[in-house]
Automatic annotation (TrEMBL):
Its EC number is 1.1.1.83, 1.1.1.93, 4.1.1.73. The lineage of its organism: Bacteria, Pseudomonadati, Pseudomonadota, Alphaproteobacteria, Hyphomicrobiales. Pathway: Carbohydrate acid metabolism; tartrate degradation; 2-hydroxy-3-oxosuccinate from meso-tartrate: step 1/1; Carbohydrate acid metabolism; tartrate degradation; D-glycerate from L-tartrate: step 1/1; Carbohydrate acid metabolism; tartrate degradation; 2-hydroxy-3-oxosuccinate from L-tartrate: step 1/1. Belongs to the isocitrate and isopropylmalate dehydrogenases family. Gene3D superfamilies: Isopropylmalate Dehydrogenase (3.40.718.10). This is D-malate dehydrogenase [decarboxylating]. The keyword Cell cycle does not apply. It comes from the Bacteria. NCBIfam families: TTC (TIGR02089). InterPro entries: ICDH/IPMDH (IPR050501), IsoCit/isopropylmalate_DH_CS (IPR019818), IsoPropMal-DH-like_dom (IPR024084), TTC_DH (IPR011829). Residues 5-349 form the Isopropylmalate dehydrogenase-like domain. One of its GO terms (molecular function) is NAD binding. Its cofactor is Mn(2+); K(+); Mg(2+).
Length: 358
């Protein structure tokens, strides 16, 4: 029997609540399938670890997870520690060295979920946002001088490389090609950012020639927010920079009903390093410890993990189980306007997995 070794890194806040739920569901799925099992290694890295050790993960942390088949992540973010320390010390400290440059964020309106867009029908909002996940605005290049003096200055340089842009474009065009509508929207801000964003547009046009069956267009990011709200059905696959896609995907998640549902995969497409799967939301301090976090974003991320591992039948079974549960308003958590809790939703998904014809 095949065993998948998965590193579980819950992080902080609701991270542990949703990752625990995700582990439980994946175990139930493996049991139901019978052809594979999971071995989970749990790592207590994050803000509490930082308070004890002065760093978010051990110095050899990456070596401890380098050979796992996948990583299931919760959230980096602690109320007592500045966000840039938790983010760079954990999530980016894994994503960037493991070259997880393609961040894939599907968005659709699941059965039973209501979009805040009154006019949109369920099938009309079905997007995948591809976020460049290794450079751009989050390259970590910059500096701060004369701190505290009137001369103080600070920069965060958005750094784009031809190789980095080419590979994310190729990935996005390839993904667009694999979807029924074969549509790609390339997002930039090439009117104002006249160097890197112009290169981004040029490379898009070059790569497009390799994908003549994909229909593509370009949007400025500000106009894109409007199009997502006004004409959601006109979009399918979307590719954008690290920062732009970060912002657009929270909007996308909200338009599809809740941030609590949205999943993401941080992929190293070449499979030299493990890929990492996580809900797109953060630590949600406002609901931490209340047991009401929506675990669906983590479950859907687990579906993406199963697809990445090649367990497509199990992935489909889990997605069906999720949809069966979202279809029932009694199983909605408060972010969806319901009164169910994490426990109840997790139990319902496990039951749906166990159900004979699920
Ligand atoms: P957030 O995603 O934690 O929360 C935003 C809002 O959405 C909150 O009202 C929260 O209650 C709600 N929400 C989020 N997930 C939910 C869920 N599963 N169920 C129900 N409601 C949910 O964003 P924030 O408040 O901006 O950030 C809080 C912390 O998380 C910060 O430290 C931030 O840096 C960190 N963060 C980490 C990641 C990551 O690790 N990938 C992503 C985003 C934010
Ligand atoms: K997260
Ligand atoms: Mn984000």
């Amino acid at each position: 029997m095949k065993t998948y070794n998965v590193a579980a890194i819950p992080g902080d806040g609701i991270g542990s609540e949703v990752v625990d739920a995700g582990v439980e569901v994946l175990k139930a799925l493996a049991k139901r399938d019978g052809a594979f099992t999971f071995h989970f290694d749990h790592f207590d890295w994050g803000g509490e670890y930082y308070k004890r050790h002065g760093r978010m993960m051990p110095e050899n942390g990456r070596d401890l997870i380098r050979n796992h088949d996948a990583i299931l992540f919760g959230s980096a973010g602690h109320p007592e520690i500045p966000d840039h320390i938790t983010l760079w010390g954990l999530r980016l400290a894994i994503c960037q060295p493991f070259d997880q440059y393609a961040n894939v964020r599907p968005t659709r309106i699941l059965p039973g979920i209501t979009s805040p867009l009154r006019a949109v029908k369920d099938k009309e909002l079905d997007w995948v946002i591809v976020r460049e996940n290794s450079e751009g605005e989050y390259a970590g290049v910059g500096g701060r001088v004369h701190q505290g003096s009137p001369l103080e200055a600070a920069t965060d340089v958005a750094m784009f490389t031809r190789a980095g842009v080419e590979r994310i474009m190729r990935f996005a065009f390839g993904l667009a090609r694999s979807r029924p509508r074969k549509l790609l929207t390339v997002v930039t801000k090439s009117n104002a950012q006249r160097h890197a964003m112009v290169m981004w547009d040029e490379i898009a046009a070059e790569v497009a020639r390799e994908f003549s069956d994909v229909t593509w267009d370009k949007m400025l990011v500000d106009a894109m927010t409007m199009r997502m709200v006004m004409r959601p059905q006109s979009l399918d696959t979307i590719v954008a920079t690290n920062l732009h896609a970060d912002v657009l995907s929270d909007l996308a998640a909200a338009l599809a009903g809740s941030l609590g549902i949205a999943p993401t995969a941080n992929l190293n497409p070449e499979r030299k390093f493990p890929s990492m799967f996580e809900p797109i939301h953060g630590s949600a301090f406002d609901i931490t410890g209340k047991g009401i976090a929506n675990p669906v974003g983590t479950f859907w991320s687990a579906v993406m993990m199963l697809e990445h591992l090649g367990e497509n039948a199990a992935a489909q079974r889990l997605m069906k189980a999720i949809e069966r549960v979202t279809a029932n308003p009694e199983l909605h958590t408060p972010d969806l306007g319901g009164s169910a809790n994490t426990r109840k939703v997790t139990d319902a998904v496990v039951s749906a997995i166990q159900a004979e014809n699920a």
